[in-house]
Amino acid sequence: MYGKMLLGVHKKASNLGTLGELGVYPLQTEILMNILKFWQHILQDNSSIVYEAYQMMVKSPVQNWTTSVKNVLHHFGFDEIWDAQTIDNCSLYKIKCAILSSYENFWHAEVRKSPKMSLYADLKSGYKMEKYLTTVKKFSQRKEFTSLRISAHHLHIEEGRYNKIDRQLRICRHCHLDKVEDEAHFLGECPMYMEHRSILFKHVISQVPSFNCLNIHMKCLYLLTCEDESIINHLSKYIEMGMDMRKQNL
């Protein structure tokens, strides 16, 4: 998938997370719109040979391309457009909105029911490109930022899932707190990153004093969804340095 290469995440990273971070829609949505645009083009000239061929296909008892057009319109609740055999740009736009909205609903439902995406379900409210992707200029920092958000990292919470280790046993091997090594532990708790974390938290608190009153989980959610550019840049540096420290300490 091109999106994974663009984000720098590994090939087993979540497709849902990849699309969600970029705010792009799958190719199928574009295919559906191209079908309808071509149908609109055919209907615009009822004196053409193509239009005559189209009319023959509509009347044919055998399923064909026109059946697909009819089914798409029916699926998204636009039977009246098929019955009228005419479609203007305004109607085309309404259908596009319905197609994209349908996909977004499907996407949110799939994210919510995926155990791997439990954190991401809390992070992602709207279907759009995330601000950090245009704020963080260094590719390696963006890569680590994305990996942490969509659970494409090497924290034990994720590696343990692949190795079929019970969640509560995916303990951090870099400290003695006996806590699960998840994203919240990495960002807000593990003593190994205390020096870098103090710099990050000092900056965040200077911008948002109430941040210090949040629990570890809420701090994690705030940091990974914050759209303040200065906080994004401080966080991206922390994530990269933390992941580098972790690799060296394995």
Q: Can you describe what's shown?
A:
The chain is mostly helical. It is 65% helix and 0% strand. The chain is built from 15 helices and no strands. The chain has helices spanning 2-7, 15-22, 27-43, 49-59, 65-75, 79-84, 89-113, 118-123, 132-135, 139-149, 156-162, 183-188, 194-207, 216-225, 229-248. Helix 3 runs antiparallel to helix 7 and helix 13 (194-207) runs antiparallel to helix 15 (229-248). The longest helix is centred in the middle third of the chain and has 25 residues, at 89-113. The protein starts with a helix and ends with a helix. The mean pLDDT is 95.
Concise overview:
With 250 residues, the protein is mainly α. The protein has 15 helices and no strands. The longest helix is centred in the middle third of the chain and has 25 residues, at 89-113.
Q: Could you outline the blueprint of secondary structure elements for this entry?
A:
Elements: H1 2-7, H2 15-22, H3 27-43, H4 49-59, H5 65-75, H6 79-84, H7 89-113, H8 118-123, H9 132-135, H10 139-149, H11 156-162, H12 183-188, H13 194-207, H14 216-225, H15 229-248
Helix pairs in contact: 3-5, 3-7, 10-15, 13-15
Helix content: 55-70%
Estimate the mean pLDDT confidence.
95
Overall outline:
elongated
Based on CA atoms alone, the radius of gyration comes out at 24 Å
Distance between the ends = 30 Å
Number of DSSP strand runs? 0
Low-confidence stretches: none
Work out the helix count. 15
Largest sheet, in brief, is: none
Strand content: under 5%
Order of helices and strands: HHHHHHHHHHHHHHH
Oligomerization = single chain
Class per helix and strand makeup: mainly alpha
